[in-house]
Amino acid sequence: MLQPNFKIFDKKSILITGGTGSFGSNFIKILLKRSKPAKIICFSRDELKQFNLENSLKKLDNKSCVRFFIGDVRDKDRLNLALINNKVDFLIHAAALKQVPAVEYNPFEAVKTNILGAQNVIEVAIKNNVKKIIALSTDKASSPLNFYGATKLVSDKIF
Known about the structure:
Blueprint lengths: L12 E5 L4 H13 L4 E6 L2 H10 L9 E5 L5 H9 L5 E4 L6 H6 L1 H21 L4 E4 L11 H12 L1
Parallel strand pairs: 1-2, 1-4, 2-3, 4-5
Helix pairs in contact: 3-5, 5-6
């Protein structure tokens, strides 16, 4: 199996939207184990998950490069603030509403996060000269059968 080269993140600044979600928190731990980043900015709206993630990193040597930034991708000004002073090299966009039943019941909330939030990420990344954006998708976006898949398809298309 091909192993990704995490050395590309050495001495780089990385911002992860949805940094306390299942992908984001695991990716931060992998980055800390397999590379030596200058800075990791965990951008998420859940302060309890940030607190828990910070506690779970205490065993790792280079945990001091992780910064926790409370914010929501729906708030372009806050997202811009996270980028403007940090000279971000890589932006990993993992923030999304992903629970199908919740999205079906709250469709416009999914539009605001999954579509408008993605557009905010793109705009502030361009404005702040981010070198590379990696946006997570889902198999549900390829042939959407539900609203979640539809919002992720739109997000993929704008990226």
